[in-house]
Design brief:
The chain has about 140 residues and is of the alpha+beta class. Helix content is about 30%, strand content about 30%.
């Protein structure tokens, strides 16, 4: 990965996730060539970081999450590292959409859409677990280039 343009470490708490997302938004707003993917970046990072807080750290506050963003002409490269519980089966969920019964619109599933969005909106999604750390890498294509 190229030299990081933004590295931030946050704690496994929802208010820290919100502040980190604000920092990322501010950085993207400073870069006109990346403003077109600002909303996509916010959606993807919010889903990933909230998954870390909820699943890797099981809502236990005070644990580190490191986010590294590297800006390349064709994409925003993202790396998220935590020391929480490993992903089941050593890989991210497959990204399939949850089953929806068209005859029961009031019974929509509570979750299951996040990983589908992540898979659809990113390239190069990869996950590794090494030395007690989870590392998720993905790129968000820059739609202006």
């Amino acid at each position: 990965m190229a030299r990081p343009d933004l590295v931030t470490t946050l704690s496994s708490e929802t208010d820290h996730v919100r502040r980190a997302l604000d920092d990322v938004r501010d950085k993207l707003n400073e870069m006109p060539e990346f403003q077109a993917i600002g909303d996509t970046t916010q959606i993807i990072l919010a889903e990933v970081l909230n998954n870390v807080v909820e699943h890797a750290y099981r809502f236990q506050p005070g644990h580190p999450i490191e986010v590294t963003l590297s800006f390349a002409e064709e994409a925003l490269n993202c790396r998220v590292v935590d020391q929480g519980v490993a992903m089941p089966k050593g890989k991210p969920p497959n990204g399939g959409m949850p089953e929806i019964d068209p005859n029961s619109p009031d019974d929509l599933p509570e979750g299951g859409f996040g990983w589908a969005m992540i898979h659809m909106m990113t390239d190069g999604l990869s996950y590794t677990r090494k030395d007690g750390c989870n590392e998720l890498f993905f790129s968000i294509p820059n739609t202006l280039n």
